[in-house]
Amino acid sequence: MEFGGYRIVSLLGEGDRGRVHLARSASGRPVALRTVHARLAEAPGFRACFRREAAAALAVTGPYSAAVLDADPDAEQPWLAVEFCAGPGLPEAVAAYGPLGDADLAALGAALAHALSGVHAAGVVHRGVKPSHVIITRAGPKLLDFGVARYAADESPAAVGSPGFLAPEQLARDGCPGSATDVFALGAVLAVAATGRGPFGSGRAPGVLHRTLHEDPDLLGVPGAAWTGFLGRCLARTPAARPTVAEVMAWCGERAARYPWWGREPVSDLIHHEEEEVTELLRWG
User: Fold this and answer.
1) Would you list the DSSP string of 130-192?
2) Domain that holds residue 194
3) Measuring CA to CA, which residue among 110, 126, 139 is closest to residue 57?
4) Considering the entire predicted model, what is its pTM?
5) Across the strands, what pairs with 21?
6) Could you read off the pLDDT of 66-87 as tens digits, one per residue?
7) Are residue 97 and residue 159 in the same domain, yes or no?
C-alpha cells in the first residue's frame, strides 16, 4: 500500500484518531506515515483544519523537532509524513537511565525549549507536549506532533491533551492556549524526568485536573532549590507568570551537561537497538 509515493512497511501503532506506519520514501528514506480514520476525515471542517495546521507544521524547523515532510489533506484518508526518529521514548529512556540530575535535566530542557521555539516561530501552539511525544535519538531529543489533526471540528482544541500536562487555561471553557501553555507542559515533562512522577499526581483524570487547578505542584526530588523555583514558575497557574520559551532555553542552556546523557549507556544501547530494528524492518518490508 502506498500514500503519495510512500510505501507502507509496518504498522507502528493505532489510536482513536488514526494509524502510524513505518513507511519508505521513493529514495529509501524511512518516515513515520500518519493516516487519519475516515470518520474524522469526514467531520465538518476537519480537512480545512488539517490543511491549515499541516502547512504550519511543514514550516517547523530545528534539530530537536521531528520534521514534517509531506501531507495530503485532500486524500480519501488524509495523511502526514514525518521524519522517522529511531530511539526510545522519553519514559523508557528515563526508566533505564534513572531520574535526571541537574546538568542532564538542563540538557533535556534546553533541547525541548529549542524545539518549541521552532514550533512557535511557525505559528503553531503544540498543545500536546508530554513524555510520550519525546523520542530520544542519537542526535538528541525529538519533539513529535505539532497539533496537526489533533481535534475534529466538533471538539474544542482547548480541551485536548493529557491530564497532568494540560495547563489551567486549557481547562477553561473560554481558554485560549498560547506559547505559555507549552511552557507549562514542558515544566511538567521535566518534573517527570527528574522525579519519575507527575507534578500533579496520578490516578483518575478528574483528580489530576482538580490538583492542576487548585494545588501547588509536587516537586519533591527535583535536583535542588533552583530547579524547584524554576519549575514552579513554569507550572504557575497564570500564563503571564511563566517564563518564555526563550527564557527556559537560556536558563537550561547555562546548566546543561557538556556531554549529553543520551550519548551514554544504557540510553545509547536502547537507541542502537531501535536503529537495528528499523533497519531490519526496512530490509524485509
Assistant:
1) -GGGEEEETTEEEE---STT-S-TTS-GGG-S-TTT--HHHHSTT----HHHHHHHHHHHHHH
2) 90-263
3) 126
4) 0.91
5) 11, 33
6) 999 999 999 988 999 999 999 9
7) yes
